[in-house]
Write a structure and sequence with these properties.
The protein is of the alpha/beta class and 427 residues long. Helices cover 39% and strands 21% of the residues. The longest helix is centred in the middle third of the chain and has 25 residues. The chain binds adenosine-3',5'-cyclic-monophosphate and magnesium ion.
Length: 427
């Protein structure tokens, strides 16, 4: 089966839309110079393995300021205060460093807020001044004991966090490029008869050692770095592909729109530019699947951070014939006033409302009201996170059409999920 959709992801990577060419690890042999004092700067680095000596020279004499090891950052000053390199960096042993682009660093600093930014710029300037007026003592290059800053637990924790983020981002880029993700499918069930109405496609990132990195860890990194855009396109392309596979399996020749639907999560970043929305829309239009079986799940946050843009984005996605769902309803701003303004087909009640609903009269009133409101606005309702039969019975008797949760089935591989196509859940 052809997969033209994937070429969009590949193009993004190939054209440097993801700046992969600037990001990666670099290896330096022992004694080689990474950059020289006075050079112009366009990136910073983190030591991945080996050691980097930081030195200045005054009157022909070399002052060693520091020897940096695993996880330590250097080359950040020139980016922060927009001046030239304050010192020379040399690989002591064979050394690998992770590149931090100017854009990445400035983005991180930008996100830190004006006060944190001010502190950073001020501290950088002060260090430069201290070094120029008071040439540093040469430290003994015994990097195992000599660097006081490295034994500070607060600094240590901070740099470990930063190193983890950087490595995760790097690994994510590679994983997108090499298509190392998988989808898991969780059935969404019609509560009246136990039939599988559709699936939610959920991304998984299996690791070679069998240990999987949780989406809760990598999705925020993907969001912040913009990698969520190609990742989201990949998820959609695979989900569409799976719908075609299901049709084939069920022996359906022409897609009449009556088969199961596939829910795909769309992140706020995927809706914040016309170009991103266009890519999603075109992928749906070009797929050999009835678009009414594609349901895009959008969070409240995506709708409310820029409602005007969200309105345009949703209107475009609607023209494809796909359905739109509001995801995790009740966890965001829960501003009821916006609901009727967006062309939404489905409301998904967040699991936090569903948990223990059977013996929570207050919660029951809220959920009854949400269901009534959704129906009033012409939306159907999916309850997320059903784990117990009592929850299911309560929802069933309160006009909630669909349910999803461990009580019916956990997310699973396609092989397992496809067995839910042929049978009804019973309770
Ligand atoms: P930058 O000025 O971009 O390039 C030289 C780098 O050396 C600088 O950023 C810092 O990362 C690092 N550096 C400068 N002074 C010191 C110091 N006293 N101790 C440790 N590292 C330093
Ligand atoms: Mg979802």
């Amino acid at each position: 089966m052809s997969k033209p959709e994937l070429s969009i992801v590949q193009t993004l990577l190939d054209t440097g839309g993801l700046s992969t060419s600037h990001i990666g690890t670099l290896r330096f042999s022992a004694g080689s110079t990474i950059f020289k004092e006075g050079d112009d700067a366009d990136c910073a680095y983190m030591v991945d393995s080996g050691y980097v000596e930081i030195s200045t020279s005054a009157a022909g004499e070399k002052n060693v300021l520091a020897v940096l090891g695993d996880g330590e950052i250097f080359g950040e000053m020139a980016l922060i205060d927009r001046q030239s390199r304050s010192a020379t960096a040399t690989a002591v042993h064979e050394t690998t460093v992770v590149l931090i682009t100017r854009q990445q660093l400035l983005e991180a600093i930008g996100n830190a807020g004006p006060l944190a930014r001010l502190v950073l710029v001020a501290a950088t300037k002060r260090l430069r001044m201290t070094q120029s007026t008071n040439p540093a003592r040469t430290i003994k290059p015994d990097w195992s004991v000599n660097n006081e800053i490295r034994s500070d637990p607060y600094y240590d924790a901070t740099r470990l966090d930063a190193a983890k983020q950087l490595r995760l981002r790097l690994a994510l880029e590679t994983a997108i490029k090499n298509q190392q993700f998988e989808l898991a499918y969780q059935p969404i069930v019609t509560l009246a008869d136990g039939r599988t109405a559709g699936f939610e496609a959920l991304i998984r990132w299996p690791q070679p050692d069998g240990y999987a990195i949780s989406p809760a860890d990598f999705i925020p990194v993907a969001e912040k770095s913009g990698l969520i855009v190609p990742m989201g396109l990949w998820v959609l392309s695979q989900a569409l592909h799976t719908l075609m596979t299901i049709d084939h399996k069920m022996g359906r020749k022409r897609d009449t729109g009556r088969g199961v639907f596939m829910s795909v999560n769309v992140s706020p970043h995927q809706l914040d530019s016309e170009e991103n929305v266009e890519q999603l829309a075109r992928m749906i239009e070009q797929a050999d699947v009835n678009p009414s079986r594609v349901k895009l799940e959008i969070t409240e946050q995506a709708l409310l951070s820029d409602p005007r843009m969200a309105m345009l984005s949703l209107a475009r996605l609607k023209t494809t014939g796909a359905l739109l769902a509001i995801d995790d309803f009740g966890t965001g701003y829960s501003s009821l006033s916006y609901l009727h303004r967006f062309p939404l087909d489905t409301l998904k009640i967040d699991r936090s409302f569903v948990t223990k609903i059977a013996d929570n009269p207050g919660g029951q009133r809220v959920v009854s009201a949400i269901i009534a409101l959704a129906h009033e606005l012409g939306m159907d309702v999916v309850a997320e996170g059903i784990e117990e039969i009592e929850e299911l019975h309560w929802l069933q008797s309160h006009a909630c059409q669909y349910g999803q949760g461990y009580f019916m089935a956990k997310p699973s591989s396609f092989a397992t999920a496809s067995t839910y196509l042929d049978r009804h859940f019973e309770w």
